[in-house]
Amino acid sequence: MVNKLFWIKRTLQVVTMFALFAVIAYQFIALQNESNEVRFQQTEKFSYSLTNLAAAEASRYLSQKNQESLQLLIDDLSEDPIVRDAIIYDKLGQILYQSKASIPLPVLLKIGGKQSDQAEGVIPYIAELYADGTKIGYIRIALEQERILSLIQHYQQRGLSIMLLLILLSFIAGTLLTAIFYKKVTSIYRQLIAEIPKLIERTKKEATK
Fold first, then answer.
1. Is 88 part of a structural domain of the chain?
2. Which of the four, 35, 58, 127, 185, has the lowest number of CB atoms within 10 Å?
3. Based on the domain organization, do 66 and 168 belong to the same domain?
């Protein structure tokens, strides 16, 4: 009887352990998938924010015909590791200022079957430039998507590592608490097991009366 209860207890413990591991694995995979979706969303938001900020600066300089500041803006953007190139056009689409080794627009957009390894992983973002409600030009910023994704992924992986560390610490704390109270729980368990035959015998006697 005691051995049977012991193996039932062990079986329940093993089943519970596997169930917990399955739940943790499922939640981990779901979190990874959600992180990938969030990473792409954050990349889009970051890219649009950068383009709009640069467009605001370019609109101000272009309306003031400040050529030095416009070229400096293009140079600063080009030096950013996530920016492949930057170009400012007038309202007719003619190039006014551009970074060095800029990718031609037909190649970047793969127009007319023109393809190049330079355009792989590069996504262009275009914003209109206005002055007093009148369109005065455009700015095009080509961004290295993989570099932005890797940058965001770095911060996400850091957060995930902290979460896994907290889970590990919780497991260790639970193990220590189990070890502390193990003897007491075992003693109570043995007392209960010892009382079961007595309870059965008492029940039989009462049933025969």
1. yes
2. 185
3. no
Task: Examine the fold and report which residue of 154, 177, 195 is the final residue of a domain before the chain moves on.
Answer: 154
Q: Are residues 53 and 100 in the same domain?
A: yes
Query: Domain of 122?
Result: 27-154
pTM of the model: 0.57
- 3-class DSSP assignment, residue 109: coil
Strand, helix or coil for residue 50: helix
Beta partners for 56? Answer: none
Written as tens digits, the pLDDT of the chain (209 aa) is 556 665 676 677 677 777 777 777 777 777 767 766 767 777 788 888 889 999 999 999 999 989 889 989 998 888 888 888 899 999 888 989 888 878 877 777 766 665 666 667 788 888 999 988 899 999 998 888 777 777 777 776 777 778 778 877 877 777 777 767 666 666 776 776 666 666 666 666 665 65
Domain count, the chain: 2
